[in-house]
Amino acid sequence: MRIGIINTIAGAKLGHVGGDLSVTDILVALFFDVMRYRLDEPGLNDRDRFILSKGHCSAALYNILAHAGYFSPELLAQFAAPLSPLNGHPNRRKVRGVEANTGPLGHGLPIGVGIAVAAVMSGLAYRTFVVLGDGELQEGSNWEAAMYAGYRHLGNLCAIVDRNRLQQGGRTEDTNALEPLAAKWVAFGWEVHEIDGHDYTALLTAFDAPSSGKPRVLIANTIKGKGVSFIEDRVEWHHKVPTAEQVTLAIEELKIQ
Predict the structure, then answer these.
(1) Is 2-255 a CATH 3.40.50.970 domain?
(2) pLDDT in tens, 21-31
(3) Which of 33, 74, 146, 181 could cross-link with 188 by S-S, CB 3.0 to 4.6 Å?
(4) Quick check: 171 and 229 in contact, CB under 8 A?
């Protein structure tokens, strides 16, 4: 999947490779082991919902959706091309499997809370999963949504924070510090799991934990640019595009992992 992301971004000559690579394992776990959905009936009422709040990392989501069977992987070559359905930010009206248009940061969790409330009101058993960037948590709209989710005891809602500690321009703790992050979620009435976001066993154990009746948040500690040594934990790779030579080097590294 990471090789696909590298090729997708290099072909388009734009994207957010660092965050795409940090969130990859989370998306793989969700789409290939955790979530309930049907490709032949994408509008199924009782399907689990997924929202990529950090919508700028669409190249990761598109690669996941393509390999899950929502559309042909050949379409990935059209990422961000003029009139392509694969916009730089996901669009639910253009791409099967996208539940919400995202990109403006701070919107995904409020949408997810609304979807989770709708499930309760409708008596449906679906779950809602929302992936957020950690820098995105500097947006106040997330905490309004978190407060309401805790108040409503939305045990059908799971947020996953891609905690790579970098945002555009610098480190989160040097920009607007988030710690103590776990304690903040607890204070808002959430069940908190702090895990290695690149460890599938840890991810699946946290996703499959018995419900406490509270909304659940996974603080997934990740590495921005995971898997490519010259990209890992480097702030300049928030939206830098690899050269042809760098693509070759990156793919060589990824193939031996």
Answers:
(1) yes
(2) 999 999 999 99
(3) 146
(4) no
